[in-house]
Amino acid sequence: MKREYDLKRLKKRLGKVKTSIEASKIPISIRLDGSDLAALRTEAERLGIPYQTLVGSVLHRYVRGDIIDRKAPELAKLKIG
Fold it and tell me: Is the pLDDT of residue 33 over 90?
C-alpha cells in the first residue's frame, strides 16, 4: 500500500449515486451459543476471512436455498395451528 496517493487524477462519477436497500448492510444484534461462535471464528480464521463475513455468507446461502436444514423434513410433518 502506498503512503500517499495522487487524488488529482480521480474522476467524479456523473449522475446520481445508485443505492439499493437490498444491497445495504444492516447492523443487527444476535445471541449465539459460545461453542457455535468459537467454531465459526475458528473456521473463518482457517479460511482467512473475518468471522462476520463467514456468518453473513452462511446466512445468505441458507436463504438462497444452497444450504438445507437436515431436520427440515421432520419439521414439515408438524402441523401448526
Answer: yes
